[in-house]
Model the fold of this input.
Amino acid sequence: MTLQDIYLLSPEISLAGLALIIVVLDVFIKNKILVQSVIGIGLLVPVILSVLLWNGIGIQAELDSNNQVFGLFNTLIVDKFTLLFKFLFLGILSIVMISSVSYAHRFEKTKMEYFSLLMFATVGMMLLASTRELITIYISLELTALPMAVLISISGNKLSSESGIKFLILSAISSALLLYGMVWVYGLTGTTDVAEIFHSIEGMSRQNGDLSNTAFGNYGLLLGVILIVAGFGFKISSVPFHMWVPDVYQGAPTPITAFLSVASKAAGFAVILRVFYGSFSSESLSIEWSMIFAIMAVLSMAIGNFVAISQKNIKRLLAYSTIAHAGYIMMGLTVVSSRMDDFTLAGPGGVVFYLIGYAATNLAAFVAVIAISNKTGSDLIEDFAGIGRRSPAIAICLAVALISLTGLPPTVGFMAKLHVFTVALNGGLWWLVLAGTISSVVSAYYYLKVIKVMYLSDPLENVRIKADPLTSIALAVTVLAIVVFGFYPTPVIKAATIAVEFLLI
Amino acid sequence: MDGLTQNTGFNGLLTALVFLPFVFALFIFIFSRNDNQVRLIAGFGGLVELILSIFVFITYNRGESGFQLIDRFSSWIPVDSFRVEYFLGVDGLSVPMVLLTGLLGLVAILASMGITYRVKQYFIWILILQGAVFGVFTSLDFIMFFLFWELELIPMFFLISVWGTGRKDYSAMKFIIFTFLGSAFMLVGIVALYISAGTFDMTTLPILVQEGIKLVIPAGAIFGLLFVGFAVKLPVWPLHTWLPDAHTDAPTAVSVLLAGVLLKMGGYGMIRVTASIMPDVMADMAWLLVAAGVINVLYGAVVTVRQTDLKRLVAFSSISHMGYVLIGLSAIASKGVDAAAVGLTGASMQMFTHGTITGLMFLTVGMIYDRTHTRYIPDLGGLSNRIPIIGAAFLIAGLASLGLPGTSGFAAEILVFLGAFPVWPWPTALAVFGVVITAGYILWMSQRTLFGPMNNRWTKLTDATKLELIPIGMLVAAILIFGIYPAFLTDLFKMGIEPIVAMVNSSPEILSR
Done:
């Protein structure tokens, strides 16, 4: 490990260091506000380091032709794709931590452990986005999953503990599937490096057009790919790997639910983009897995949206909605037909753009739910009655978030959906786009139903609800992002387009 | 065609027209202290918008065709895979629609002065709604068009479900789901066109499609997707079921806007998008248009006769009248350019006149309801003894609706029939019976509500106030002016429509594709 490696890893190292410092400080310092301020200031360090890396200042090693930097024996890769996701994770982490402050009184004793575990999970996700080697991917995935399991059950009540166990077991199963898939790929290609897997597959298929003369013919590699899809499918909560989502989302503390729904998903998609557009981007293989993703997308959109209609609990509703949105995002993964086409990268670009838009939107929704349920103590939709009058500001923020989730203009949700629809239709998958649009219509029903309850039902009591300043900041930032990027998405689309250019090998 | 490719510049008038309502809404949101201030600002906003739309109507140069008053800013979303421009402009087709929106916008605001429940939010939503409709009629970039098209859903949802009556929740949700479903299909169509042509520019798409670019999905499929979106809005039978519910349960002013301008977005879209981008497919499918049109006219009229709720009656009569728009559009299949132009002009004219006539009808029905608190026709009767001005306005609207010569309704219907008859003699002949049934239900309804023995409950009714006289006067004037001298509008419409119909016959080889 050279100095260069440390520099490349510095955002992760500083965040993990901060997490450790917080645990130690918690023991010695009684004043929790002080510790929280330390977190707040400490979080700036990884952000600044990521900005420095983005600008390429101080990198001694020569950039290779692609402006990518490799480190740690080529397991680590730092490029704009990686860094964009690092910014996204750090942003999500900040919003979640800010909105957790008022929520965390429910588990006062373990509050600081809660914050430090969140940071560890984020470190895992940042590593996940910046690695290009299967074993490191697996380890980063575990680094994300284990703190998450603790965080989910941190409330200590029955529902929360049950969710934690559920998450742990299913996460273990999916990791096992993933590992088994990786073993297949390693067995057939002899390497765990994403780029070398690609070259190895290309080499094998060059001989007679497909993989028929390798072990198990075409099916060996395909089996590996399918197992990897299954493993990642769990992370991105897509059908048919979605069974854990509603229960875990309901049982987990709400900020953790928010974190799971956006950060976990973004990490899953980041690594999917890296592996599938890297290793498995050869033509014969990409046609197979893009179709798998297309079918999973249709199922996710259909099941997520239809089951969400009958939900009574807002967290369960958002859980099914997140399944549906995994489907919309996966539409971006279906365009692979030919690597020569300029449009191929529009697919991953759409995925990244959607992830950023979805992060802002879903965080806004969850922060609003946190602000409301902090005061009402309930997650039931019927208890949202009259919030429009009890707290106009929170209600309008939640309404904007729900409108963005529906995909109505002028919100970023609309632009993101439009973008992935364009991409998918360009790939010739009109049936996928039709399924997407029709399921959006279905989703309008249940999102608007929440808005209706907030504004049209009479309030149960007339006490006004006021969000505390920190939650208000989180809410304002996310809602502003929704509206601003709804009107002017150009910077995000451009950043996403630049980032995905680094995916190709 | 050179004129079309040179659509650049930034005039600013249309930008002001489209975005001022939003500015006024924001102004109300931030500055208004009490309900009266809200009413004042909204009323002023409505007036400014009307003046601006009249200004657009006047400044549009009738000497040269094509798009004018262009506002274009091409680097809004300048990404290769997804190029969206800011592009506003008007032609002969959209100018009258802009005028109609300005007119009915002020009427709706004036008709809402009696609202006392959550006044601030109400006027904010009304203004946003008006801005969105202006946006639909002036956008020339497909994504902007769609953006405004969808933007109108949220205000409508709140306006119906908060300030409505009866089963308002159900109606509002039904309206949203129907329209959203239609626009979902439309979006797929728009995206398919974009991928084929590489542009969202509505002025160059017709040329590119005409030149025979390769479409990613068959032209018929794109046409179908787009058409469904507009058909839900118009509404075309059997996609019409949201309309009676939405109308019946909406507050008066929202009914005026819904019937007056929102339905016209459907017809406008059919001409601006489907007819101009794929005229040949539309000509091929004209049998469907005329069939749907005849069903709309006759089914709507027959159902109208049976209604006992005054507002529901007017709502169903709207369905019947929108059938004439479809019949007028079906003239696009005619061999000669002239007949097609006459039919389409008639359809556009019908949209405008129906906007003013039904606007007036809903307005007066709302006034009657405010006074009597019932819309049940058998309970009413002899009202014109007590409220002669409202009664007279209601009667004028009714007579214009059945196409009495001298009113704008006549001019529109005669053009529709003239245009469609050469191509579709039998269906047109059948549709003419719709006029007879219309006369039947209008006269019967007037007789049961305005004349005949008066119910003793209504002896204390008072006639229209001065504030109510203004919108009544505006609409009556519009009906009579454009009835006596329809060429004001028809000339304009023709300018917008002739380039479209000229394309139908210019390239017969496309038919074989």
Summary: Residues 281-505 of chain A form one domain. The CA atoms of residues 406 and 444 of chain A lie 5 Å apart.
